[in-house]
C-alpha cells in the first residue's frame, strides 16, 4: 500500500514537471511567434488537443496568454520596454501627426480612437476640439481626455492590459458595434509594400475592424517608419481607409497604391 502511494506521488510529480516544462516552452514559442494554434501545440509537444486547451486555460488564468478562436497569443502583444521605446521614437513626428488629425476633426463629431502611442498623440491634440463624443478601448486615452476635456467618453468593460492600458474582452466588438461614428481614427504596426495594413494583436484588429465598419470615414494616422513594415495580423488594405495622416511621403510603391485607391494623403 505504502509503495503504491509512493509510486502515485512520484508519477504525479513527474506529470507536474512535464506540464511545467511544456508550458515554459510554450511561452518561449509564443514570445517568438506571438500566436500558436491548439493543433500546433498538440503536434509540437505530442499531447492531445484537450491537454493543449487545458494548458492554454491555465496560462490564461495566470494572466500570461489570451485565448483566441483555435489558439492563443501573449496577453501583452507588445512588451513594456518596446512600448516605452515607441513613446520616445518619432515623438515629435507623432505630435505633428496628432495636430494635423485634430485639424480634420469637426467639432461635435462622434469619434472612435484606437490605442497606441500615435493615437495617444492624437488624443493630446484633440483637446483643441469641442463637444466630441469619443469611444476608445484605451484606458490611458479615456483617462487623459476625462481630465482635460468635457467630451463624452465611452470605453468597453473588461480586463485592463497592464502594458498600455488597453481594455479587452470578447464583448468589445459587440460594444463598439452599438455606435455609429463620423470618424474612426486608427493606427497600425505597418503598411507593407503590397498595401496591406497590419497590427500585432488579433483582438485589437477585430475591434478596429468593427469600428471601421460602423464609421462614415476612416483616418489612418501613422509615422513614416511604418511604411514598408509588415504587421503580424492583417487588418485590411490601404483602400479601406479614406485618409492617411503621416509625417513624410510614403515610398514610391506605397504612394502609388495610395493614389490608385483614391486615399487622401495629409502630411503633418
UniProtKB/TrEMBL annotation:
InterPro entries noted in UniProt: Carb_Metab_HTH_regulators (IPR050313), DeoR-like_C (IPR014036), DeoR_HTH (IPR001034), NagB/RpiA_transferase-like (IPR037171), Tscrpt_reg_HTH_DeoR_CS (IPR018356), WH-like_DNA-bd_sf (IPR036388), WH_DNA-bd_sf (IPR036390)
Residue ranges constituting the HTH deoR-type domain according to the UniProt record: 19-74
Pfam families named among the record's database cross-references: DeoRC, HTH_DeoR
MF (Gene Ontology): DNA binding; DNA-binding transcription factor activity
Highest rank taxon of the organism: Bacteria
Transcription regulation listed as a keyword: yes
Region (Disordered): 1-21
Keywords on record: DNA-binding, Repressor, Transcription, Transcription regulation
Keyword rRNA-binding among UniProt keywords: no
Protein name as it appears in the record: DeoR family transcriptional regulator
Amino acid at each position: 500500500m505504502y509503495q503504491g502511494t509512493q509510486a502515485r506521488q512520484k508519477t504525479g510529480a513527474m506529470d507536474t514537471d512535464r506540464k511545467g516544462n511544456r508550458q515554459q516552452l510554450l511561452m518561449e514559442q509564443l514570445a517568438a511567434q506571438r500566436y500558436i494554434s491548439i493543433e500546433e501545440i498538440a503536434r509540437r509537444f505530442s499531447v492531445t488537443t484537450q491537454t493543449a486547451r487545458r494548458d492554454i486555460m491555465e496560462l490564461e488564468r495566470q494572466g500570461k496568454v489570451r485565448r483566441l478562436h483555435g489558439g492563443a497569443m501573449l496577453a501583452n502583444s507588445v512588451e513594456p520596454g518596446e512600448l516605452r521605446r515607441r513613446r520616445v521614437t518619432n515623438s515629435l513626428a507623432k505630435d505633428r501627426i496628432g495636430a494635423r488629425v485634430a485639424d480634420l476633426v469637426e467639432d461635435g463629431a462622434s469619434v472612435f480612437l484606437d490605442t497606441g502611442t500615435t493615437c495617444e498623440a492624437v488624443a493630446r491634440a484633440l483637446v483643441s476640439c469641442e463637444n466630441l463624443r469619443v469611444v476608445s478601448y484605451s484606458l490611458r486615452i479615456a483617462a487623459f481626455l476625462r481630465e482635460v476635456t468635457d467630451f463624452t467618453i465611452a470605453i468597453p468593460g473588461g480586463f485592463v492590459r497592464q502594458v498600455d492600458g488597453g481594455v479587452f474582452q470578447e464583448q468589445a466588438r459587440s460594444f463598439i458595434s452599438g455606435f455609429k461614428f463620423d470618424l474612426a481614427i486608427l493606427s497600425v504596426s505597418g503598411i507593407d509594400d503590397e498595401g496591406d495594413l497590419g497590427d500585432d494583436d488579433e483582438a485589437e484588429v477585430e475591434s478596429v475592424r468593427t469600428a471601421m465598419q460602423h464609421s462614415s470615414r476612416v483616418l489612418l494616422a501613422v509615422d513614416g517608419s511604418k511604411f514598408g513594415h509588415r504587421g503580424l495580423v492583417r487588418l485590411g488594405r490601404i483602400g479601406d481607409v479614406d485618409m492617411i495622416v503621416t509625417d513624410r511621403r510614403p515610398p514610391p510603391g506605397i504612394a502609388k497604391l495610395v493614389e490608385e485607391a483614391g486615399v487622401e494623403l495629409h502630411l503633418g
